[in-house]
Amino acid sequence: MAASELWGEATNIVLSWRPVAVVLFPMTAALVLAVLGVKKKRHIGFWAAVAGCITFLLVLSLLPLLREGVVEHRFADMMGLGLMFRVDLLGFIFAFLMSLAWMLVLVYASHYLQVEGFPVFYFPFALLTLGSCLGVVLTGDLVSLFLFFELMTFSSFVLVITRRDRPAMAAGKLYLYMGVAGGLILLFGIFAIFNAAGTVEIAPLMQELAGVEKTGLGIVFGCFFIGFGIKAGVVPLHFWMPKAYGAGPAVVNALSSGAMIKAGVYGILRVLLLILTPASLEWSELYSFALSSGYWVMWIGLLTMVAGALLALFQGHIMRLLAFSSISQVGYMITGLGAAAYLLGAEEAMGYSGAVLHAFNHTLYKTAFFLIAGIIFYRAGTLELGKLGGLAKKMPLLTAFFVLAALGIAGVPGLNGYISKTLVHDALLEAYKLYGGWDIYLAEKIFVAGSALTLCYYLKFFQKAFLGEETRARIRSAPWLLYAPLFVLGLFMLVVGLQPGFFVEDFVLASTYAFTFEPYGIEHVARLDFFSYQPLAAALTVIITAVAIYVPLYRWKLFDRELPAWFSVESMLMLPAARLFYQILCRMGVTLDHSVNRLYFGVGGKFLKFCRYVGSFDSNLDSFFEQSSRKVYRLMERSRELDDALNEAYEKTGSTARDFADRSSRLDGALNRAYESTGRAARGLADRTAHFDKALDKTYAATGRAARNLAEKTTRFDRALDKTYESSSKTAQKLAGKTLRLERVEVKEPAPTAAPDGREKAEAGDRKGRRPAFNPLEWNIKNINFDQLLMVLMLGIVIFILFYYGRALVDL
Amino acid sequence: MSLHLPVISIALLLLASFVMPLLRRGARAAALPFTLSVLGAVFTVSLYLIYLVESRGAFSYHVGGWPPPWGVELYIDHLAVYMMMVLSSICLVVMVYGARDLYHEIRAEVMSWYYTLYLLLLASMIGIALTNDLFTLFVFLEISTISACGIISIKKDRECIEASFKYLILSVLGSGCVLLGVAMIYMITGYLNYDFVAQELPQAIAEYPYNILMALSLFIVGFSVKSALFPLHIWLPDAHSSAPSPSSAVLSGLVIKIYAAAILRLLFRVFPAELFEVVPVLDILLFLSVLAVMAGSIFAMVQEDIKRMLAYSSIAQIGFVFMGIGLFGNRALLGGLVHIFNHALMKSMLFLAAGLIIYAAGIRNIRDLRGIGVRMPLTMGAFAIGAFSMVGIPGTNGFISKWHLALGALDLGRPFFVAIILLSSLLNGIYYLPIVINAFFGVKIEPRSEHRDVPGMMLVPVLILAAGVIFFGFYPGPILALLEQAIVL
Amino acid sequence: MKDIVIRTVCRVIVPFVQVYGLYVIFHGHLSPGGGFAGGAILGSSMVLFALSFHLEAGAQKLGHETSSYLESGGGIWYILIGLLGLALGSNFLTNRAAGLGFGLPGQLFSGGMIFLLSLGIGVKVASTMFTLFYNLSEEEGSGGDHQ
Amino acid sequence: MEIISRLLENYYYFVSMVLFIIGIHTMLTHSNLIKKVIGMNIMDTSIFLFFVSIGYRRGGMAPIIQPGVEAEMYVNPLPSALILTGIVVAVSVTAYALSLIVELYKQYGTCCANEIAQIRAREES
Fold it and tell me: What is the pLDDT of residues D76-95, one digit of tens each?
């Protein structure tokens, strides 16, 4: 190894408090500033800058320790698992670039933020974010990493909403939700790793994961990739970035883009190249997993690169342009990492060192770009490219820095971007050499196209802002301290570009000791000559392609076109997905509640209908009884008439008979004297007849009365029946009315807003036809009657389930 | 003497609660210090009992000197002392808060009754945690029900009365179920003591399978209505949101969980394990807990009243406890049990913080909370910590329980539940974080009512609980060590 | 109620009912009954008195304050007796094992502390019933009752 | 037939279950709060009945120690003793529920749950 004599062995562990101090110092400083700084706004910037410098020095103080070996500090029983700080050279590189960016930006911000009206929260939270970022790269296990990662999300959220206006709040919310969601997905991956491997230390775990099948590994890796990729801005997950950057001031964006997205890249790097890579390079199932995941990561990187560059080309706002540029640049790093994993065992050091170096370089020039944008805003008051122009004359120094940074990012030889891009490009070429195939060939071409596009949009930036007509915006002077960070950054860029060997060999390649790379690959990179024919030719190709793209675009004024709103991943994919998610969740509740309501009302309606049936049946019966009773009554009437007639007839007969008897008695009297005995006999007969007659009379009267009684009883029964039915129908009606009223009362209530109580039934009105009104406040069943029903239902269900299974118990 | 401590603490609480109404006007000032000292004593006793149980193992106590099958037995094992510690610590802290807060929520005449009910509630909950006897369990269950309803309805507005009536009816229905279950168990086995019942049940399965199942289902339904497991949670939002803030804190933080702990004991100490191989009791609980976690979060998302939102969130959180029970792996159980403590800490803190906001600013609606963080930084800071803990940010204790639950689910090869846990974390984030954000960074709105100063006596408990959330987020070791022994049931 | 018959009858009956209640309390360990049953009888006698005469007359006989004192006192009494077992060096609520004197079975003082416990319970139940009755009838349910 | 004979044998279980269901049904379907409480009491009573019937022995004596009586002759005293406690609890719950109802009646002027819900809904809208 090239630098093994410079750095300690990976196996040599140095115990030291210093990493803890590095992480805790900015956090403590943030706390102190937050407490003290509320009153003294003026000095807070100065002290924050001082704290940033001290942090930088603290990070540098890790160097001598690293010469002896890996620095470690453990808190054994923290969080149940132990918190562990572990610094190797790779972590140091990232810590270095982060603390560098922070220091410069804080110095800058102490003077810059007066244009933003000095948001008090900025400085403490910037320092807190610094602490958590350093925590992310200096920890040695995934849980601690996750802890700091989440902390970073929350503290940087406050930075994103520095301006606290509507777009800033919206962007901040999106950022936060993405961050939390990403964190949870990450957590899932950590759970899975811990479950399979029994440890969360960041170390080669592939052997411990051997039992996991390949799809499982894929899911785990996917979780990590999504979790970190959200922070890094990998393409389908990047959409929060332009929003957040567009809404934040330059000093925040410089931090986010310069350093924070590196935390995401760092995570992907660790997981892809360390945790999910076999410790030895024997060919195995796991080995092939690493290769194939590397292949896909490479393609995602290329997609990110090209998509970011293409979108950047059409932005009219400097911040958004730089945001897309950052996305595109992350694409380089991801491509490099993918290539490194894909080339496992052969030339992976190439891709790896390209990615790491590119992360470093990107920090340098992207921080510079944002600071430049900040100065533009400071002096000109606007960041719309359309309103700017001719800045080159007004600010020559700024123009010079811009050109330096633009050439750097475009990969012009002699500056830093060239080195890292060449490394990544070479990694792709090596992959083509090793595996062949049209896809890798295509990948290489896409890489060139992406680089060309990068150059294009910076040309556009340059032309719009610095050339052309002079802006009408007022220009005010800026303090020299705003330029100081740019000097430092420019210096670094030049040094890296002109003396690549120092950085590539002594730092980047040396940091490979944490990984399972083959020595000869490392040697190969170390021996690489950046100023030989091939890489220079590649750079030239890029430039020529860029010009070929730029000129026609410029001619036809295609730059001024804004992309249509729907043409973004966000509106095409993510928003619908989020909406779908929300809808599914809410709909679930609504559906449940509605079905319960419907049950409630359905039962009511059925009952109502039933009551109506009963009512109509009842009225039918009623009318039937009425008619029949009327008939019976008529019949009775008739019979009475008949009876009367008969009575009369008998009466008449009787009177006639009496007449006759009288006459006969008279005759008899006359005869009596003559025929006494005959007369007596005749009288007896007459008497008997009268008796019989009376008896008959009586009988008929009795019959008549009985008949009348019967008739009366029937009528009474009829009336009673009548009454019963009437009352039952009335009850039924009342019930029906109640149900109706209930329904009506519920329906009458206005659906929207206000309190949730007693309201669930309002939906009854909506239940037909339209989809259910979407007012989730109404989802609370509040009827006291209803609760117990639910309880009994539950009891019934539980009993049923248990008894269903209980049959097996009998056989036990 | 130290073996008498559990029963002494219960007796002390009962004694204190009976003494409270005796205090007349002159002595009323003594009520608060007296209550606090009793609570403090019980808390100290619980800490000592932890030490005792750690050093000499679980022991049982025979009330009245009668040995188990005849007498009432208290069984003091790791789970019992854990629950006792949780109960007494939270009760102590909440009472410190309530000392000031209650005077503006309830009338001064009934304050001594509040102390009575509060102490009685704590006594009965400790009784539930310690008892080893089914019928004593029922008696304590009823006492806790009545006193829990009492500390809601003591605030005499119509919401409280209605909510407590609803709570009362439902939980009486629940304890009716429990009593019927006890009766069935007694009918089958002839014992009421847990150990003896557990001895008898395996033989009884063949003879009376349906009775046992009936008893089991009655227990499940009875306890789950009391601990507000998902479809039976309907009483909870009203009850917990309308009650005075200290009551809400205790109800949401402790009362619903003691029943979960009770059913945990019943399921794993009384019913034979082979029963669960045949009968999907645990799966039912698991299914319900998943529903609870999701539904609670979803319902909480759309609330406007802050206390109501917290109440719905409790429904989701009790789901986690039951998920731990339902998963029935060592680690998952550990996660579920440690969530009892963690949730007690954070939810009582959140309720107290909400009560503080209501006290100071008179705001209940979430939308009106914008900019309140600037006026009440410490309160909202504590609230923010609680919110982070609810989301499960590492460094807070909510993370610890979710970590163990999720790992427990993975141990059993059920990653679906990990996804549910994480999804609910996300949902928690969706409804908790905007409150915090708006409170600190939202555009300020003019306060409608007079802003009262926050008394230190109310603020300190909130801060203590917040510190506890952070502390046990970083050092859960002692609690976990205790629980690891507790789950060896 | 102003019915003279009821008043007279109650005036005669109440003392007997109360004596019976006390009997049931004291003989809790000898015959069916005990603290709760006896207390309920005792309490209902007082309720009967209050019903038949006047609420205020009843309140004069047993004031609200006194009643709630008795209520708490009954509970305290119970627990103190329970603690007595502890004081005697045995378990909570211990009776025989704590070395308390037991008389002959069937006699009044044959149950150790049970007699005293029943008394406490009886007093508590009686006063609770009375308090409850007043709370409900005067519509001032404080909601603070318990076992 | 066997079921019927078993039911007849254990009629007290059957009756108590019927009572239980009647109680729950009353609690469930009646809107009147007092009827709910009555239903609650019926339910409780059914459980008590069940419990006591477990301990009952046909022709048994009251469990008071008397010289010369075998232990088998006594009725099992435990359920009765327990149920006494249960009754106390039920009484206090009932009293508490009634006092709540009184309070509700004062607030709303009705004892009907539905009407209370309607009043609340009207107030809130």
Answer: 778 888 888 888 888 889 98
